[in-house]
Automatic annotation (TrEMBL):
This is Porin. It is found in: Cell outer membrane. Residues 8-347 form the Porin domain. InterPro entries: Gram-neg_bact_OMP, Gram_neg_porin_domain, Porin_dom_sf. It comes from Halomonas kalidii. Keywords: Cell outer membrane, Ion transport, Membrane, Porin, Signal, Transmembrane, Transmembrane beta strand, Transport. Gene3D superfamilies: Porin.
Length: 377
């Protein structure tokens, strides 16, 4: 029974109900098709202060909280082997969308699953490093995750990817995946900058009773598909999606003490790419970090609670930052839940390189807050 709460915590903030709420729209002759969706809306405010020239983002806002629609199917080929496919779209649930109705194809993949040989899949799907290693900390609906470089399922994934994970071998599982970046579309040259790249991630996971251990790595090469900085902020928020061309290594341990309480411990590190900085690269992009995380989840009847704290030591900052997150969730019914979340990034002062030298830009952030509701169908 200890695994029950742990699985709920890993799925994140009552998100485990997604599979249970999926409606089977077709099931005949070994072929099954499921439909799942949710509409989620909330009100938010606060967060990291904007820098000069950046769009304001800390004011109160009525927002969509990752509404989505998913269609998945499977077909039993043999008693052990099945083929499967899934596609999931995101849409704006809080306002009129005059474009195409959906703003993102979040997932789109197909594959083969065998209880004896494991699972292989290709397409656009979440980072296996996040799914297997950082998952115990990925429990918040919006902000709060510092592992996986703060990117969650986006970490060198979701597009042009191929992955494999073994079946459960007495509690052990291993995984490996790779994302392909094509050189097509890049300006041709003799320096090899337009060549294709493969970003690989892999690791192992072990579960026994209420204990869950996982460790892995993820190559973090420069993500050309995001156009450099991808329009994101600084490393200090933990949400910078640029690759530093250095591997990320991480490990987590979690334990469900009973059906109501579980705790988790995590560590992640990435070296500074001194060569890229010496060659004139952005200090913020290529600096490394060490992150320690400690958190817990507690459930009581229809209530669930999460709380996590992180110490992040950044190589390009004099002081570490202490970030934290907390959330409370209430399940009104099997289809409807309400939630509230808090997050403090505690981003430090930012070191900015200028033509006249190096300046320190004082930076501050308030607590980010989010309240809202979700309906699953």
């Amino acid at each position: 029974m200890k695994k029950t709460l742990l699985a709920t915590a890993i799925a994140g903030a009552l998100g485990a109900s997604a599979a249970a709420q999926a409606a089977t729209v077709y099931d005949q002759d070994g072929t099954k098709v499921d439909l799942y969706g949710r509409i989620a809306m909330g009100i938010s405010g606060g967060g990291p202060e904007e820098q000069d020239g950046e769009a304001k983002s800390t004011g109160t806002e009525f927002k969509d909280v990752y509404s989505r629609l998913r269609l998945s199917g499977s077909h039993q080929l043999t008693t052990d082997l099945s083929a499967f496919a899934s596609v999931e779209w995101r849409f704006r649930g809080d306002e009129r969308d005059q474009s195409d109705g959906f703003r993102e194809v979040r997932h789109s993949f197909l594959g083969l699953r065998s209880d004896q040989f494991g699972t292989i899949q290709a397409g656009s799907f979440d980072s296996f490093y996040n799914t297997f290693v950082a998952a115990p900390f990925d429990v918040y609906l919006d902000r709060g995750l510092e592992l996986s470089k703060g990117q969650g399922g986006d970490l060198q994934a979701r597009g042009d990817s191929l992955g494999y994970f073994t079946p459960d071998l007495s509690g052990f599982q291993a995984f490996i995946m790779t994302k392909h970046y094509t050189g097509n579309g890049q300006v041709a040259g003799s320096d090899g900058s337009n060549s294709s790249e493969l970003n690989t991630q892999g690791g192992v996971k072990y579960e026994w009773g209420g204990l869950r251990l996982a460790a892995g790595f993820a190559q973090d090469r420069d993500d050309r598909a995001l156009g450099g900085d991808g329009g994101t902020r600084h490393n200090y928020t933990g949400r910078d999606r640029r690759g530093a061309d250095e591997n990320i290594y991480g490990a987590t341990a979690s334990y469900a003490f009973n059906d109501n309480f579980s705790a988790r411990l995590g560590y992640e590190t990435q070296d500074t790419n001194d060569g890229a900085i010496d060659a004139g690269g952005d200090v913020e992009q290529y600096s490394g970090y060490d992150t320690w995380g400690l958190g817990a989840s507690y459930s009581l009847g229809q209530w669930a609670f999460h709380a996590d704290v992180y110490r992040v030591d950044l190589d390009n900052a004099e002081d570490e930052r202490i970030a934290w997150a907390a959330g409370a969730y209430y399940k009104v019914s099997s289809n409807f839940d309400v939630f509230g979340e808090l997050h403090r990034a505690d981003q430090g002062d930012i070191t900015v390189s200028t033509e006249d030298g190096v300046e320190v830009d004082e930076n501050d952030d308030s607590v980010y807050w989010l309240v809202g509701a979700r309906y699953h169908f």
